């Protein structure tokens, strides 16, 4: 009877082990709440990309005349595009960086809006860029809270006064290009975070 008991307890162990395996694979199938956030952020970044392109209404040819214009917005974030950067991304650190960058771009876009208003240039694209940046920031803020990470504080940059329409246009061209680069980078980061968080493909 000792033999029967042993094999019964062996079977019981096997059953427990099987159950454990089912549970742990079930945990992998559990979808991170961040996935929904990433899914909402990507279309916002697409909308931001659209409005950044419209920050100036120059044609591609006209834009060539601005290629040599010196870059003056030194307070904009310096974005890293290296493979090493992307391979070492961590969810909390990347979200925190995305948040700081969105906030910084929003401060610059709001400044540009005032500058354009001052010289009577249209401000619609700056306004919608600002709204999209705020929506992106809100989503990142919610995500940071979800993973109990700190929300970084930003200090407002000191930005120049703009006195002519031509100067405002030059700043629009510069900010437009930098925003587009930020959008491409953000999308890459978000896709990477989706993979890191095992978000389902759609
Ligand atoms: C971007 O703009 C184009 C044309 O202006 C429009 O067709 C497209 O739907 C817009 N995309 C987004 C995500 O707003
Ligand atoms: C991110 O999380 C790691 C642990 O998972 C922690 O060591 C690190 O300090 C966090 N970084 C930030 C910016 O919160
Ligand atoms: C960030 O999110 C938290 C919690 O959802 C909220 O209480 C807080 O007001 C938000 N902060 C900003 C700056 O949006
Ligand atoms: C816009 O005009 C106001 C009022 O003259 C001025 O205080 C502000 O500095 C100007 N903003 C920019 C960005 O030039």
UniProtKB/TrEMBL annotation:
Gene3D superfamilies with a match to the protein in the record: 1.20.1250.10
GO BP annotations, alphabetical order: positive regulation of cell population proliferation; positive regulation of MAPK cascade
Keyword Signal: yes
Record-level GO cellular component terms: cytoplasm
InterPro entries in the record: 4_helix_cytokine-like_core, IL-11, IL-11B_fish
Alphabetized UniProt keyword annotations: Signal
Record keyword Electron transport present: no
Protein name (record): Uncharacterized LOC110950974
Organism: Acanthochromis polyacanthus
């Amino acid at each position: 009877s000792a033999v029967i008991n042993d094999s019964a307890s062996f079977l019981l162990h096997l059953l427990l082990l099987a159950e454990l395996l089912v549970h742990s694979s079930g945990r992998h199938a559990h979808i991170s709440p961040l996935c929904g956030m990433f899914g909402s952020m990507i279309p916002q970044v697409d909308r931001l990309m659209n409005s950044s392109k419209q920050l100036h209404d120059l044609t591609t040819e006209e834009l060539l005349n601005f290629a040599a214009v010196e870059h003056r917005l030194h307070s904009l974030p310096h974005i890293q595009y290296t493979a090493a950067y992307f391979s070492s991304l961590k969810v909390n650190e990347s979200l925190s960086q995305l948040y700081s960058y969105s906030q910084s771009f929003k401060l610059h876009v709001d400044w540009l809006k005032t500058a354009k208003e001052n010289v009577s240039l249209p401000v619609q694209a700056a306004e919608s860029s600002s709204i999209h940046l705020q929506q992106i920031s809100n989503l990142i803020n919610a995500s940071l809270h979800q993973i109990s990470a700190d929300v970084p504080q930003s200090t407002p940059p000191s930005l120049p006064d703009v006195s002519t329409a031509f100067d405002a246009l030059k700043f629009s061209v510069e900010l437009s290009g930098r925003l587009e680069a930020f959008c491409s980078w953000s999308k890459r980061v978000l896709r990477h975070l989706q993979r890191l968080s095992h978000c389902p493909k759609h």
